[in-house]
Amino acid sequence: MSDKRFLNGYDVVLEACEDAEATQMFGYPITPTTEILSGWINKSLQNKNLHCLQTEDEVAAGFAVCGAVMAGAKAFTATAGPGTVLMQDALSMAEGMRLPFVALIGQRGGPSSGTVIYSQQEVNLSIHGGNGEGMRIVLSPSNLEELYSLTRKVFNYAYKYRFPSILLTDGYLLKTRQSFSLPETKIENQKLLALVDETSQKNIRNIYTLEKELMSELEKNKQDFEEMSKEIVEFEIYSSDVAIDDVGNLVIAHGIVGAVAKEAVDELNKQNKKVALFRPVSLSPFPKDELNKLAQKIKNIFVCESSLGQLRDLVKQNLEYEVKISGIFKPAVGVEAEEIVDLVLSNK
Amino acid sequence: MKFKILLAGDGGQGVQTIAKIVSECFFAKNFEVISIPNYGLEQRGGVSLSFIQVSDKQIFYPKFAKADFLLLMSEQARERTSEHVSADTEIIDFKNYQEIILQNKISRSSLNIFFLGVVAKFLSEKKLISKDDIFVIFEKKLASKKNWEENKQVFEIGFLI
Amino acid sequence: MSKDAKFCMGCGHPIILQNLYKILKNNNEDQKSVLGLDIGCSLLAWDFLQVNTFQTHHGRVTPTMVGFKRAKPEALTFAYTGDGGAYSIGLQSLLWSAKRNDPVTVIVVNNSVYAMTGGQTAPTTMKNQITLTSPVGNSEEPIDGLALVRAVNKKAFVARTAVNNPKQLQEYLQKAIESQKEGNFAIVEVLSYCPTSWKTFGIGTNNFLEGLKNVFVMGEY
Predict the structure, then answer these.
(1) Which of residues 48-67 of B touch A (CB under 8 A)?
(2) What is the pLDDT of residue A294?
(3) Are both A187 and A254 inside the same structural domain?
(4) Residues A235-258: pLDDT tens digits?
(5) Which residue of A25, A28, A70 to mutate against C (max C Cβ within 10 Å)?
(6) Is C6 among the domain residues?
(7) Chains A and B, touching by 3 or more CB pairs within 8 angstroms
(8) What is the residue range of A163's domain?
């Protein structure tokens, strides 16, 4: 096919941001998302509608995004690890004020400076990093096609629903080079209207005199979040030639580990092991109903992740049935398909 | 069919250039290719790795446990890659090429191109891709850069061993 | 022109805000103006004037307005902040915005204390001044934020006035607006009353303010 190109993750993300009609980026260099910053600067040299500011820190980058979206520009930031920690200040404001904030996060090992390329330890931080209720959209891509389509979605969801929207990826996927084709169906862009302009006078706050005022605001937001959830919740169930009703065993993984798990499931199915993969694409909102539909018929859940249990805890929070949970938990380290195969086979 | 290639050397030795040429070559020949670089914190002096997988089917994950083929360009790289070596791993070891490199006065800056030639020979013997396939991409990437004539010769030396 | 003030009796904020509004209205620029508010007593201005306003976080109003201005260059953008927001928690962003010469106007209300939290030591608290966190008197000299800004930006309009010098206050605010229109950074620091934290009354409040003028040099930098 002629539209197949050999690209790396950064190229794909940058192309998605441009296709999403983003015009403003604010960022601070940090591995593994620096290439998004430098890549956008290079794009802005080619396209005079694109702008970029390398700010003094991630805090400033986040608040500049808040300012830019209030003025009606499609804006985003990209960060990682300790930068994601600093970004919580702006993310919390965006959550409180329902600003359409877009952040692209490349997870790296933690806590602290940790390691610089890969981990899956920023799940909790992305969802619950603020001093609030975690009303954020968090999408986790597993391959380049999803890196593109989910980047487009975080922009659209942010502008449509006005919750902070995070693409939660990692340096492995961003550095991966593979063949890539644009999605066959065109993705329409959601419009972003200025929150503040000459046409009306607005006074927008994020601090309340009365506790009950804040509570009713949050209850309203929660209702909006739940209504939205039905529309955007996303997941994949994968197995080769095994009827889902009959699998008995479920591997649960997200992001790039979700990709590895497919190889493992292929191998296990080949060995007549009845197993399927459940891969949440939206970590927040979590595909709770779909998980529980499967869980009714499942004997074993194997959670596989590059963390000591952040995904497992999400699964536990959402699971309504008694199912035995075990898994592979390797913070900052990749999971190999062979390990998943061994884990499932060794389970009696 | 699936073939796993691990290229390893010191940072600054040009491992990623070899990786780019080899992986783009497979892509051009309509293989499914996935590649990922790996290096440490250091800008220089650390170990630089490239994981490349080639298949006729879709590949999901860029890393792998054991390599089918390993190129070693430095001593540091040997230690770093030992966990990826199995009994079946075929290895091109820089140690076995020291004399030829000295005889042919191959400069440090062209060392990666020499090994590109060695890799090209290995892959063509495996009937995965031909020397010409690699040369096309090599030329596309480097013909306009300085030292092209020297690089071309060094590639040939590497291939003819 | 304004809702009932939620500011304390004798506070300097409403005077500064009303002067700003008067200028914007006279210039017919009230609609194109956007007033970002730092956290601190400045946040109480959120519904005080008939211009677009929004609250931000403590120390973050400057980078927020930088983002707004870059997205909408035709807007007049004001970052309204206290001395703590400007010179302590937000100093890094203030200085870098000044260094980049971002066309935004920062208004710093300097009352020498963290007033919203009840009167703690601020970067502008004077030597020996007693506050809740300096009960035996502040051991540090206060910071001169304007000197820092001037050190990194030669083009910006940089000036200090006081809330009881209304003519100079209006003049400087006007000049700061012009500076922004010319594409330059501007900062106006206004020495302001805080009788609640100062625990002063009547003429005592004015005397305290006059005392601040002895420590903080008035005029253009």
Answers:
(1) 59-65
(2) 92
(3) no
(4) 999 998 667 777 789 999 999 999
(5) A70
(6) no
(7) yes
(8) 5-232
Asked, for residue C171, whether it belongs to a domain, the answer is yes
Examine the pLDDT at B60 and tell me if it is beyond 50: yes
Same-domain status, A177 and A322: no
CA distance A176 to chain B (A): 5
pLDDT at C1: 45
Give chain A positions within 8 Å (CB) of B23.
6, 177
Judge whether C5 lies within some domain: no
pLDDT in tens, A23-34: 999 999 999 999
For the segment B22-39, what is each residue's pLDDT rounded down to a tens digit? 999 999 999 999 999 987
CATH number at residue A111: 3.40.50.970
Domain boundary, last residue among A211, A232, A253: A232
Count how many domains chain C has. 1
Which residue, A188, A214, A232, sits at the end of a domain? A232
Q: Collect all residues from A whose CB is shorter than 8 A from any CB in C.
A: 23-24, 26, 51, 53, 55-57, 59-61, 63-73, 75, 89-90, 92-93, 97, 194, 196-198, 201-207
Nearest to A68 among C43, C60, C67 (CB): C67
Q: What pLDDT does A2 receive?
A: 54
Distance set, CA A340 to CA A109, A258, B126 (Å):
21, 11, 31
The DSSP string of chain C is: --PPP-SPTT-SHHHHHHHHHHHHHHTT-STTEEEEE-SSGGGGGGGTSSSEEEE--TT-HHHHHHHHHHH-TTSEEEEEEEHHHHHTTTHHHHHHHHHHT-S-EEEEEE-SEETTTTSEE-TTPPTT--BTTBTT---SPPP-HHHHHHHH-SSSEEEEEETT-HHHHHHHHHHHHHHHHTT--EEEEEE---HHHHT--THHHHHHHHHHHHHSPPEE-
Which among B33, B37, B63 has CB closest to A334? B63
> Which CATH number characterizes residue C100's domain?
3.40.50.970
- Cross-chain residue pair A67–C96, CB shorter than 8 Å: no
Mutation to test the A interface, candidates B7, B34, B36, most A Cβ within 10 Å: B36
CATH number of residue A309's parent domain:
3.40.50.920
Distance from CA of A114 to the nearest CA of B (A): 11
Q: How many angstroms separate the CA of residue C106 from the nearest CA in chain A?
A: 15
Domain match, A218 and A267 both: no
Domain count, chain A: 2
Reference A204, options C42, C73, C56; nearest CA is: C56
CATH class of B2-160: alpha beta
Any contact of B with C, at least 3 CB pairs below 8 A? no
> Are B60 and A179 an interchain contact pair (Cβ–Cβ within 8 Å)?
no
Instruction: Report the predicted TM-score, pTM, of the whole model to 2 decimal places.
Output: 0.96
Range of C161's domain? 13-220
Q: How confident is the model at residue C176 (pLDDT cuts 50, 70, 90)?
A: very high
Residue B93 has pLDDT above 70, yes or no: yes
Pairwise CA distance, residues A84 & A107, whole Å: 9
Measure in Å the smallest separation between the Cα of B58 and chain A Cα atoms: 10
Same domain? For A182 and A90 the reply is yes
Neighbors of chain B with 3 or more C-beta pairs under 8 Å:
A
Residue A9's pLDDT is what? 98
Assigned domain for C25 exists = yes
Task: Note whether A149 and A268 are same-domain residues.
Answer: no
Which of C50, C57, C102, C152 to probe the A interface (max A CBs under 10 A)? Answer: C57
Interface contact B32, partner A, CB < 8 A: yes
Residues A239 and A108 in one domain: no
Nearest-CA distance from C200 to chain A in Å?
A: 26
